[in-house]
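Per your request, structure below.
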């Protein structure tokens, strides 16, 4: 594996672990400074990686300080990160790479035997206060403080649902789930009305501040997914101005400009993807029409990530 690919993987891994061990603001700052979408795309579509490894599930191991860590990849997409934790029974740390490899082996055995993998679910386990990820009724792993989504949301329930939906899409092209089995509903507290005096803002922040600019290939999707749940849980509307991105937070607004004709539109991220090719964003059919990219299918675009 060449140095360029390894640097891309390292950026994803380090950013992941900042998300799992640090604060939300630190995680966001790490994403803004360390992740390069072009490098991520190259890692995920590297011919040498695909040719030299026939297994669809692989792991990458590394050190965080003095602690071991491992990330599980499926079809070159990061799914779960395993962190070292002490075994209560023996006071010895469990090996994250061993845990990750066991799961990778299970996934590879399922796909090699061509067994049906569309029954991928996640449920709440009250006894251990963790989430159980299952394939065909068999427990694949649990998601807790030491095993969570690679690009963690810092919310275990959301991590569990996102990890499950990624596996459903990558292994069976199955539609995403919008809920966790057995997940208790939070208690609703009565709302209290509090009078707050709002002072006028002297220097309001400018709208649509550009936080980052990225260029690359875009594609679009629509008819086959219209009305289905997106990774964010919303219903996909192929006529709306929305898009799928691998890592930007849901709700992020992005100005997409077609470099060929200069036409642009502001889209909202509500789905994950694209998962194939070197594309950096997957537009809804409506967004593709808005920037004049519908007929070509793909095109070179400039993305301007806007501040809220």
């Amino acid at each position: 594996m060449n140095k360029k690919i390894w640097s891309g993987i390292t950026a994803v891994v380090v950013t992941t672990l900042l998300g799992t061990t640090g604060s939300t603001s630190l995680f966001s700052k790490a994403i803004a400074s360390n992740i390069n979408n072009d490098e991520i795309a190259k890692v995920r579509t590297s011919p040498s990686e695909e040719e030299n490894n026939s297994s669809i599930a692989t792991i990458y191991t590394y050190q965080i300080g003095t602690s071991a860590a491992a990330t599980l990849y499926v079809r070159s997409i990061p799914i779960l990160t395993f962190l070292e934790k002490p075994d209560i029974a023996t006071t010895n740390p469990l090996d994250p790479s061993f845990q990750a490899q066991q799961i990778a082996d299970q996934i590879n055995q399922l796909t090699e035997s061509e067994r049906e993998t569309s029954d991928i679910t996640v449920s709440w386990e009250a006894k251990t206060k963790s989430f159980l990820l299952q394939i065909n009724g068999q427990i694949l792993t649990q998601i807790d403080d030491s095993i969570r989504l690679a690009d963690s949301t810092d919310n275990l329930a959301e991590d569990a649902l996102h990890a499950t939906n990624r596996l459903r899409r990558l292994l069976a092209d199955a539609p995403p789930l919008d809920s966790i089995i057995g997940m208790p509903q939070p208690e609703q507290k009565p709302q209290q009305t509090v009078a707050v005096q709002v002072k006028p803002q002297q220097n309001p922040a400018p709208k649509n501040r550009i936080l980052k600019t990225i260029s690359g290939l875009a594609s679009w999707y629509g008819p086959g997914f219209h009305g289905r749940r997106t990774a964010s849980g919303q219903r996909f509307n192929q006529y709306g101005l929305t898009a799928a991105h691998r890592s930007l937070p849901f709700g992020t607004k992005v100005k997409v400009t077609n470099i060929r004709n200069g036409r642009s539109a502001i889209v909202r991220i509500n789905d994950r993807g694209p998962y194939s090719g070197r594309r950096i964003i997957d537009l809804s059919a409506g967004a593709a029409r808005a920037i004049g990219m519908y007929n070509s299918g793909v095109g070179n675009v400039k993305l301007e990530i806007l501040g809220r």
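The longest strand covers residues 210-221.

Regards,
D.
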